[in-house]
Amino acid sequence: MNTLSPGRRPFPPAPSLPGDARWFWVIGALALLVLTAAFFHWTSGQLRDARQELGAAEQRLVEARQDEARTIEQAKRAQLALGLMRDAHTSGLGFAAWAERRFNIKQAGMSRGAANALLSEMLRSPDRLFGAEEFEMSVRQAGEGLFSSVNDPASTVQVSVRGSLLFRTTGSGS
Predict the structure, then answer these.
(1) d(CA 5, CA 137)
(2) What one-character DSSP code corresponds to residue 15?
(3) What's the pLDDT band for 174 if we cut at 50, 70, 90?
(4) For residue 131, what are the CA distances in angstroms to 26, 74, 143?
(5) CA–CA separation, 13 and 2 (whole Å)
(6) Could you give phi then psi for residue 8, rounded to 5 degrees?
(7) Which among 1, 17, 102, 136 could disulfide-bond with 160, CB atoms 3.0 to 4.6 Å apart, if both were Cys?
């Protein structure tokens, strides 16, 4: 059922604008489009800057957490060291109760008796601790041995010793 009469349009014709008004709307629409584009460009720059700041802040957070973990670990080690120092002090092993004697003997020839005396001085006891950095003992004659009996009293051995002998200066050993 067509109620339209022939030649009649379904919608009324658009009002015609004068030429200047039409250009005004086109220029206004273009200006609005340019302003919108400029606004989006400006906000995208701010968004990019905000994302960079967020990334830098997240990196600083990760570094701060790593620093915190390191600091906690160092605090635990310090507490452990303090506990060990307290235990050492109560058991008589504190550093104030000990003195140090450094040995530095290089390729010295000495009698077996003198070598035995040197070795007995370095023996560990409750009052002495020896820490060797270098130790070497050898015979000078090809037919001799370190652990064999020697008939010649003038027989010597060659000794090299470098290290520290810690000995107790106060109190008695336990």
Answers:
(1) 131
(2) P
(3) very low
(4) 96, 28, 31
(5) 20
(6) -100, 135
(7) 136
Q: Is 159 left (phi over 0), alpha (psi -120 to 50) or beta?
A: beta
> What residue type is assigned to position 123 of the chain?
L
Edge-first strand listing for the sheet containing 128-139:
98-111, 156-168, 128-139
Q: Which amino acid is at 101?
A: R
Alpha carbons 150 and 133: distance in angstroms, whole number:
29
**pTM, two decimal places:** 0.42
Tell me how far apart the alpha carbons of residues 63 and 41 are, in angstroms, rounded to a whole number. Answer: 33
Nearest alpha carbon to residue 138 among 128, 130, 147 = 147
The Cα-based distances of 76 to 17, 83, 84 in angstroms read 84, 11, 12
* E strand or H helix at 108: strand 98-111
Number of H helices, E strands in the chain: 2, 3
The count of other CB atoms within 10 Å of the CB of residue 161 is 21
Q: Which tens digits make up the pLDDT trace of 37-76?
A: 888 888 888 888 888 999 999 999 999 999 999 999 999 9
